[in-house]
Each structure stands twice: as structure tokens, then as C-alpha cells.
Amino acid sequence: MVTMDDTPMTVTTTPSEVAMATTTHPEDAATHSTRWESPDQTFAKYILEKGKGIETPNLGATCVVQIIPLVSEGLEQGLVGYPMYEENEITLGEGDTEISAVLDACFETMQAAEVCEVEVAKETVGMGTGDELLRFQLELKEFTRREDPWHQGSDEILSIATHHKNKGTECFKAAKIRPAIRRYSRALKLLVLLGKDVPEDQKAAYINLRVACYQNLAACQIKLTQHDFVIKNCSKALLLDSGLVKALYRRGCSYTAVNEFEKARQDLQRALDIEPANKATIEQLKVLEKKSKAQDEKYAKAMAKMFGGPAK
Predict the structure, then answer these.
(1) Which positions ≥6 away from 277 have C-beta within 8 Å?
(2) DSSP-derived 3-state class of residue 194
(3) DSSP 200
(4) Could you tell me which residues come within 8 angstroms of residue 292 by beta carbon, excluding any fewer than 6 positions away?
């Protein structure tokens, strides 16, 4: 465990600190705190007290923290994902909210005993538009890193991946689509890392888990109308099992949405061949034919207009 007492008093400069630009804190010009903006620009932090050592927590790390909202209007634990005000032990990545994802990313840049103020645009976490900010004071008192996955055995990797998949399903059922996507994506990253090193007696579980994550990820993405991603993830699932009716159906829906009508027809007909009484597939085929007919008529009118023929 890394604590404020376990590390030397000499502060070592880290690569992230090299990138920091010293600036005056907008709320308190006397602090002269150091400002750092995340590479993806989702948050900025102002270091109020530097931490000790060079190690930082990672996803899955157990951390003793204090989270104090500085703009508390409209905030509750259900939105933040972690307990606020009091000192608490949390596991990074287990908050499952848009705000907790930003706090996780910030904690992953902090050293033991560091205190900072973090700013995030409300728009980033789906709480508004424009330049309004949420602000938190964070203190990372101590932490224990989770062992890096490349040092873990296949049993542990499969167990953690299954945990993320199950949590993703909980999020999906609660209509928390983006947190669900994060969970399924984490599971797949672990499974891809495991790759060819899967013991023979675990291959079936490994393949089933990958298939479930690809299909569930596509189910989330279709709700966000991310049709290119739906097509890619359904295709990956179908490479592992060509008879997946849900993957064929979802890919067929997304092909329909992007006007790839022939590909959509092939997928939906294949799904119907496997499950002839599947009502969702039957209805989607009707949607496909209606949309395809409408496009044909539109093209016919455009061609007639272009070449001077009668427009019907």
C-alpha cells in the first residue's frame, strides 16, 4: 500500500508534471497552484498539495479518498457514484456514472497525499450545455494498486472480465448506457490481452464471454445510433459464432439505418432462417423493404428529372 508515510519526502518530477503549466487558480489568486489539463480535455486539475513519490493508482486500485463537491447544487451520490464529504475507501472504476469516470481519471494522475481541485464541464458529464463547471476538491490519502493484467493468470483475468460484463449488464438494465459501454469495453480489453494464452479447459468460457461482450456492446451502441460500431462488434461476435440471431438482427438493423439494404436483407433473412417465428426480425424486414422501396422511388424521380422523363 502506498501512503503518505510510506514514501520519501523528496518529490520526484513525473512526466505528467513536466507537461503542467503553472497558472493562478481562477478562484484564489493567492494559491498559485499548478494547473494540469487531461490530454482528452475532459477535466482540469489544480494541485493544492503535492503528493509523495512517483506511483499513481490504476483502474481497480483500492483508494482511501475524500471527495468534497465545491459546487453541490443538483449533486447527489447517485450522480457522483462515490460517497462525498467523508473519508471513504473506493475502488477506481466502480462508480458507474459519468462523473465518477472523470474522477477516476483524475485519481489515476494523483500521488499519495496529493490534494487537488478538479473542474469538469457539465456538458462533459451530460448535465447541461455551455461553459458551466462542476468543481470538486479531491484528496488521495493512500492507495493499493491492482496488479497489472499482464502479471495476472488466466483465472484472474477471466474473473475480472466477467465482473465487468456483469456490471455492464446491470448498468444497461438501469438505462446507464455509457457506463455499460465502459464496462463491456474493459472486459474485452482484458480478454484481448489474454489472447492465445487461454488454457484449453477455459477456451469455451473465454469465447462465450467475448461473444456476450461484443453483443452487449452492440446493444448499447444501437441505442446511441452508433451504427458503424454496431456493425463492427456484431461482425466480431459472428466470427466467433455465425448463428447468433441477436447479432444478425442488430447488424441488419444498423445496415438498414445506413442504407446498406442488401447486406441488411442477408442478415435478417439469415436470422429468420434460424428462428422463423422471431417477431422482431419479421417486423424489421418489413421496415427494410419499406425503406428500400422509398429510396428506389426517390432515385427514380431524381433520374426522371435529370433526363427529362415523367416523374411519377
Answers:
(1) none
(2) helix
(3) G
(4) 261
Alpha carbons 106 and 275: distance in angstroms, whole number: 48
Banded model confidence at residue 310, pLDDT cuts 50, 70, 90: low
Beta carbons of 278 and 245 less than 8 angstroms apart: yes
Pairing of strands 2-3, 44-49: unpaired
Cell of 131: 461553459
- Assess contact for 9 and 52: CB atoms under 8 A: yes
Q: Does this model's pTM top 0.85? A: no
Which three cell numbers mark 46?
A: 489544480
Place of cell 428462428: 275
Phi, psi of 291 (to 5 degrees): -70, -40
Distance CA 224, CA 237 (A): 19
Predicted confidence at residue 307, as pLDDT, reads: 67
Q: Which helix (H) or strand (E) holds 272?
A: helix 261-274
Give the residue from 275, 232, 224, 268 showing the smallest Cα distance to 248.
Answer: 268
**Tens digit of pLDDT for each residue in 225-247?**
999 999 999 999 999 999 999 99
Residue 295: which pLDDT band, with cuts at 50, 70 and 90? confident
